[in-house]
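Appendix B, Record 12. Input sequence as logged:
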Amino acid sequence: MTADEPTARTRSSPAPPEGWVEMQLRGLLVDPNTDTPVVILRQVDGTLYLPIWIGGFDSNAIALALEGATLPRPMTHDLMRSLLKALGAEVERVEVHALIEGTFHARLVLAPAATETGESEARRPTPPKVDARPSDALALALRVGAPIWAATAVLRAAVDDSRAHATETDDKLREWLERLRPEDLGKYEM
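Logged structural output:
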């Protein structure tokens, strides 16, 4: 595997604390009702799903990472990975931390790159958090092997929000997502 290929989680991370759920990107597909790309996050070792609708360019960046594509020039997320490395930082995790007016909000939790001396957790400063669109955060997480966490409040709010705005089309989509099998995810199955 080259440095330009996406990776699965490559470093161990602590289990999420109460109020957070670790998620994995399980698929990238197109909503059959709106022709809009959807990223499907699934709880690690669990059954919770979180679909996040994203833009076409964003889905392309995620698809390239999933495919392990190496382009002649770096894409934006490859540049972000290189900048973090050059600055001696790494993405500790991605957090999907809010759902506000139907829009998901995410952030990158950064940490100094691991050192050989193994600085103790107690001495580490509070890691900086950088606001990001979920699609950008996920595209970067795939490239650096960072874990993805979702706040349980976001998972609850997503369910409540979908119920509050349910239409016949939404009901069809919800049924489709509930029936979704791994083989339905096509070439982006993980």
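Confidence is low (pLDDT under 50) at residues 1-10.
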